[in-house]
Write a structure and sequence with these properties.
Helix content is 51%, strand content 0%. By secondary structure, the chain is an all-alpha fold. It has a domain at 29-116: DNA polymerase, domain 1 (Orthogonal Bundle), CATH 1.10.150.
Length: 131
């Protein structure tokens, strides 16, 4: 019997024989997004941003290989190597965080809440002078 106010935590266990690739997980995620009625342009942007990430990692990954370090490395790469503006990086980060949230919270395909470990980067604030 549990004390009042305590909740049971979901068990995060992905059977080895059921481990999906990141592409398989993404395709199922996109079926859900299409079912939500997202605009075609939004759907295409999700695919584009996922493609940028796949290009960065260079090979297919399984759920077990998806780590916080992998995604933080991608963000660092976009900032330092590609010199992308914060707005560009943040659009891609938000898209991938939503995907990772789905993988962790809705499907339990991944073991750790990677989406909570990285956030959009700080963008410089613009100070406008109105005359």
């Amino acid at each position: 019997m549990m004390r009042k106010g305590l909740t049971r935590r979901k068990q995060r266990h992905v059977p080895v024989e059921f481990s999906l690739t990141i592409t398989e997980m993404f395709e199922e995620y996109m079926l859900v997004k299409k079912g939500e009625g997202l605009a075609k342009r939004t759907i295409q942007e999700h695919y584009n941003n996922f493609g940028y990430f796949k290009t960065y990692i260079g090979k297919e990954h399984t759920a077990e290989e998806m780590t916080t370090e992998l995604f933080v490395g991608w963000i660092t790469y976009m900032i330092e190597e590609m010199n992308y503006k914060p707005g560009t990086v943040n659009i891609r980060v938000r898209t991938m965080r939503a995907f990772l949230r789905y993988c962790y919270e809705d499907k339990a395909w991944i073991y750790e809440p990677i989406h909570k470990s990285f956030k959009p980067i700080r963008a410089p604030t613009l100070n406008y002078v109105f005359k």
